[in-house]
Amino acid sequence: MAKRKKLTKTQTRRIQANLQKCLENRKPKGFIDDLSNEQFGPQEPGVVISRFGQHADIQGENGDIVRCNIRRAIDNLVCGDHVEWRRAKNLESENDIAGVVVAVHERQSVLIRPDAYDGIKPVAANIDQLWVVSAILPALTPSIIDRYIVAAEEMGMQPILVLNKIDLITPDMKDIVDETMDAYRELGYEVVYISTKTQEGMENVTSKLKDKVNLFVGQSGVGKSSLVNAIYPESNILTQIVSENSGLGQHTTTVARLHQLPQGGQLIDSPGVREFSLWHLSQDQILNGFIEFRDLIGCCRFRDCQHKNDPGCALIEAVDAGKISEARFDSYQRIIESLANKPTGRKFEK
Ligand SMILES: Nc1nc2c(ncn2[C@@H]2O[C@H](COP(=O)(O)OP(=O)(O)OP(=O)(O)O)[C@@H](O)[C@H]2O)c(=O)[nH]1
Ligand SMILES: [Mg+2]
Ligand SMILES: [Zn+2]
Question: 249: CA distance to ligand 1 center in Å?
Answer without folding.
Answer: 8
